[in-house]
Amino acid sequence: MKLYSFVLSMIATLTAADTARSPSETNTNHAIKLDKIPSITTARTTPTLALKKRYTNVINISLGNKKQHVGYLTGQGLYDKVYDCLWNTLCPVTGGTSLRTCKGPTETCTIPGIWYNLREKQYRNSHLDIKIAGYNLDVDRMYRAAPKLLIEQIAGTFKVSSEDAKNCYQPTNGERGKLMCNVGDYVYVSDQLSLAWMNATLRFNGETIEGSFDCAAVKQAALSFLRDKLMDWWKGVLQVGTCNSYIMCASNEVT
Description:
This protein is an alpha+beta fold. It is built from 5 helices and 9 strands. The chain has one domain (32-41, 53-249). It has helices at 2-20, 23-29, 75-90, 146-163, 219-238; strands spanning 56-63, 68-71, 109-118, 121-137, 168-169, 180-183, 186-191, 196-204, 242-249. Strand 7 and strand 8 (196-204) form a beta hairpin.
């Protein structure tokens, strides 16, 4: 009887300690590490997995910190172009079904007509290259929903990056009040178990010296996009009642 009481006491103590942890502590325990972000070459090929009964999960987001010029293509316009590249060109429907198969890093989707400055003149003959550096979808039932959620978060993160004032500037010879902006070089999104993840890169094919990119400045906006627009969908796909979120930058240095 004494042993039984002792066991109950220990369970109560552990439960109270777990409940007392803050959400940030819980998220930190599942935080992705930069050197653990997989690429198409390092991802293992695994058989279809069955999700064990779970009650919580975490959506992880990682942002690249290398400045990439997007010119006047910002906000919703940038979102639409990135989404179209990933959804229609790089992850097309295949095999006469509604399932999508994403292409690897050897395939590129080009977004043309990017404005830039050169020797006090503006030109529009540069472009952005969008690639999927890696992806994984291990669960059959996630094939239909997960790609859309991953792609929406990636496009949304580039969108909010281009909307932050710290990442935009008035070009020296541009129209007054019309800003050019910069974003990071990649967005990686995954669930806690890495059953569904995607790493998409964005590259400007030219060089610019104006403006900067502050990754830390857009972290909250990227999380808000996830929580406001996609989190309820993630809960359904992952079959969990609670889904937390975590975000990190490759570096907090302003580039």
